[in-house]
Amino acid sequence: MTAGEESLFWKNRGDRYIMKEQFDHAISSYEYALHLDSDNFAAWNNLCCALYKAGRKDEAYRTKKTLADLKQKKMQELKASHASVFTSDILLFFVFLAVVWSILLGYWLYYWGGSDLGMGFAWAGIMAFIIVGWIWAFLLLWDTENTVCKFFALLITGFIGGGIIVLSRSVYRKIMPAG
To answer: Which helix H or strand E contains 18, and what residues bound it?
Structure first.
C-alpha cells in the first residue's frame, strides 16, 4: 500500500469516527493521515472540523489557516508548473501568426481570385495579426482570477470582432466591382 493509499485509509477511518462522534479518535486518525501525506486536503479539512466539534476551536482555526495557506501554495505551484505556452514561448506566437497568415492568404487567392497579390498579403497579414493577437491577449487575460482582466479580455474581443467586420467590408468593397 502506498503512502497516499494509507493516508486515504486513515482519513476514511477518521470519517467513521466522526459519524460515531468520537472526535478524539477522529483527530488522531486525521493527524496520522496527514503524517503520511501532508497534501491530503480532505484530511486537513476534516481535521479542522473534528477539532472544532471537539471544542478545540483555537487549534481548529490554526488548522484552517494552515489549510488555506497550503491551498494557496499549491495553486501557485500549479500555475508555475503549468505555465501557459502562450506566456512562455514567443516563437510559438510567430509560428501561429505565420500559419494563420498563410491560411488567410490561401483563402484570398482561392476565393477572391488573387487579382491583387499585394492587397492579399496586406489583408491576410492584418487579419492574421488581429486574430492571433486577440487569441493571445484573450488567453493571457482570461487566465487570471482578476475580474478586471476578464472584463478587458471581453472588451478586446468586442473590438477585435468589430475590427474584423470593418476590415472585411473595406477589403470586399475594394476588390468587388461596384454594381
So the answer is: helix 3-19
